[in-house]
């Protein structure tokens, strides 16, 4: 009976995951980002950069397929000497980040701009109103204010540097997680993370999407350290405390970032039914998780107390937007931000009035759609939420403030042409990022044989994140960023199985390597 419960729960996680994930693979493969030449949907066009990339890629693939020496050379560089090559690739990606931030640190719009302005204008009536309605952004404001008081600067360059450090810290935690799980997979993880960093310009957007990443990566690392190592209990005790602290930090930075924590609890519950169960080890881990839970609870109380007693910006907590507002927005338009709803939240005077209005609009929209209409809407929303491998770069309202027409001369101008809204190479960036997103997704999709506990936690995290975005405000893939540690780690775990399946499908299984 116990084994049947375990097998059923394990299969259910896998089925639920693939039900949504395979849709994402399809949507990524059919994204307008992958269109070559003139792109009527996006209003831009690829250039010789993309043409050259495709030409080189095709030549390399043919060479690896047809010429034994090419294949041997590839194996020597990227496999036999992977402990040299992989760190080198990752190091180059980090250097590239520094170049990107140095050449491109513009003022950013939407919520990011409100946070940045509040650092120097905390008494602005408009900003007080914003944070009263959106207290979820108060923690990052206070953290940035704390950094400003230490380093005496609030420049965009400084905040972008901090964002870069936090993203790289997340990478470090992810690599440590892989090392604890299986050190032989670390070079693979380095390759995957290096490509991601090279195509992740969100480091110039100092917002919760990127700032929450190290917290998520850290509590996933602590989870693996608690459950997959043979350390003594006293060595695991501080890890449990850090686990709880990282989880509560993720919650305050971006509440939906604790989806992985929920996944951990559910998967641990399923694996309790696996036979044979080491009750002594299970009891020891249970005690450590209690310590982590107590740390989380204590951190939650302390964090709320600090927010309620902060004096940097005076806000009216009664103006906070109710959660049901984001569910109501999530079924309007493309499933994303609704300016009309947001304006109504500012007009209505009480919490009850705002909640009642949102509930009424939610019910109206669902009734109007009907069951099949709602399912069709969710199908399209899943595409809106997950298809774009650039993570909605420059698709937010006033994403980059000021002049978005980059200079046509100089290195910085050429670089900005790949990332600014009116840059001549923006479509090239979108194409390259989309190709990588497709490869990344295929590594996960083709690695279904990986059924370890960690892989199941990561699958359930991705499924939970996608479900959250389907039910609440979504409409663009920027909201996926908070869940990227799960994507990166799962791609690493699945890479060997995915590549083996790919070789089998295309006849590379018996390819000579000597």
Quick overview of this protein structure:
The protein is mainly alpha-helical and 514 residues long. The protein folds into two domains: 2-50 and 81-308 and 387-505, no CATH class; 315-369. Helices cover 70% and strands 1% of the residues.
Descriptive report:
The protein has helices at 2-29, 48-66, 68-80, 82-103, 110-118, 125-133, 138-151, 156-182, 186-198, 208-211, 213-228, 233-253, 259-271, 279-309, 323-329, 339-347, 351-386, 411-416, 426-445, 453-471, 484-505; strands at residues 38-39, 44-45. The model has no long low-confidence stretch (mean pLDDT 92). It is globular, with a radius of gyration of 24 Å. It contains 21 helices and 2 strands. The protein has 514 residues and is mostly helical. Helix 9 crosses helix 21 (484-505), helix 12 runs parallel beside helix 14 and helix 13 crosses helix 20. Strand 1 and strand 2 (44-45) form a beta hairpin. A two-stranded antiparallel sheet has the order 1-2. Helix content is 70%, strand content 1%. It folds into 2 domains: 2-50 and 81-308 and 387-505, no CATH class; 315-369.
